[in-house]
Fold this protein.
Amino acid sequence: MYKSVDATVMRQFNKRTVLNVLYKRQQTSRVSISRETGLNRATVSSLVDELIAEQFVQEVGLGTSKGGRKPILLRFNANAGYAIGIDLQITHIDTVLTNTRREVVYQNRLQMAVHKKPITSKLLHTVLTEEVRAATAVCPKSPRGILGVGVALPGLVSYETGRVTYLPNLGITDWSIAADLTQSLQVPVAIDNDANCGAWEAFLSTGIPNLLFINAGIGVGAGIILKGQLHRGRDGIAGEAGHTTISTLGVLCSCGNYGCWEQYSSEQALARYLREQGGGQVDAFAPGFVDGCIEAAQSGNQAYIQSWRTLAEALGVGISNLLQILNPESVYLGGTIAEAAPIILPEIQRVIRHRAMFANKTVPVSVFPRETVARGAAGLAIARAIDMLPTHAR
Ligand SMILES: [Zn+2]
């Protein structure tokens, strides 16, 4: 039995299809869109006119023709509007302002002095509001202005409800962050887990449909893309790989368990390895901790070199476990730990060759730059605002 589809819904669906074609192509024409989508020319023309009126699409001159009228070329207006993406970590906040193609036009890293004040949701609300206002102040003039804000968070959060369930290393629970920020900023705010944002950005920028994004900083998490979709699991909390056990009688974790992977492969682990090497009171929460550890290793300090090696081995073990389960095409490393790539990647790859099986031994592992998670968060805001990027929601 067939049900009639509401005409408005159908038009919205077709408009999204047209916008997707325009987004994918550098330049195209109404005729080409009609050919590519199977929509008739009158429908395409009407939808394109609407998109031009909304300033998402521009006419940019005439194309070539094998006879007959030359087609008017159309281009997606990447600067129709902007989005703000925020990567909230324990020791810092990365903010980017991007256009609708997620091209970064402004970025900022704010170090958080975590020891000076306890980090509460109230304090974070204030800091996030200030970061959004700073990015908004430098936003170029555009027809649509700020389309939205995306916030990536280190922990259990609900993409659908915009609520934080639990941020382990901050000790924050049950926070209606998206609603709170939407109210004070007066723009739509969307949230997701930080590794999910990184994975999604990795997928959008590489097009690889099966990949793993490991976000390693104070904590460790994984974002999983399977068949071009973000894998969220039943309760939206898939990818909490940092809290899988790699040592049954191991170090006590902030989640309450013992021997979690992140206790061996995060900044906190690095600080502990250094203390065990006689490094005195090393503090992972101190500003510039990772940068200092990279410099020390590069200048030949053996305690630092050994600590990085131990951390890389643990990262390799956890990644090998994930490779065995998921068999992805690529693994990407992000977060502050990824900034030590030249020091740690060879060891990670050695462990994978040793521990993973068959084709998993040769799955490439590479790094993404520091703004990746924030860009993914901006992409989330764009997708929410104009329904154009591949869906992040499912
Ligand atoms: Zn844990």
The pocket of zinc ion is lined by residues 243, 253, 255, 257, 260 (CB under 6 Å). DSSP finds twelve helices and 16 strands in the chain. The first helix runs from residue 7 to 24. The CA atoms of residues 169 and 255 lie 8 Å apart.
